[in-house]
Specification:
With 110 residues, the protein is mainly α. The protein has four helices and no strands. Helices cover 53% and strands 0% of the residues. It comes from Drosophila rhopaloa.
Length: 110
């Protein structure tokens, strides 16, 4: 599993990595969480995001994953991955006969 390709960074993360130092310079003593928050505000306000598109990185990742799986990778539990358990279906809540008769009585008294 260690050889499986890692997912590429999003356009926002690519931009944030390049803008992080300037955000820190503009706001001395800012916390890490505040850097991310400020970065999000700047990203939302930004118009020309096309230079940060991560389409090529995503294509490269998809190609690498297909190659990895074609070479026998990603076989699930055989490769040490934990098997995901299916969640049991939720059962509808049951009303007791008493609850149903109480509701009927309420409707009649109106």
């Amino acid at each position: 599993m260690a050889d499986k390709p890692k997912r590429p960074l999003s356009a926002f993360m690519l931009w944030l990595n390049s803008a992080r130092e300037s955000i820190k310079r503009e706001n001395p003593g800012i916390k890490v969480t505040e850097v991310a928050k400020r970065g999000g505000e700047l990203w939302r306000a930004m118009k020309g995001k096309s230079e940060w598109e991560a389409a090529k990185a995503k294509d490269d990742y998809d190609r690498a994953v297909k190659e990895f799986e074609a070479n026998g990778g990603g076989g699930g539990a055989a490769n040490g991955e934990a098997k995901k358990r299916a969640k049991p279906a939720k059962k509808p809540s049951k009303k007791s006969k008493k609850d149903e008769s109480d509701e009927d009585d309420d409707d009649e008294s109106e």
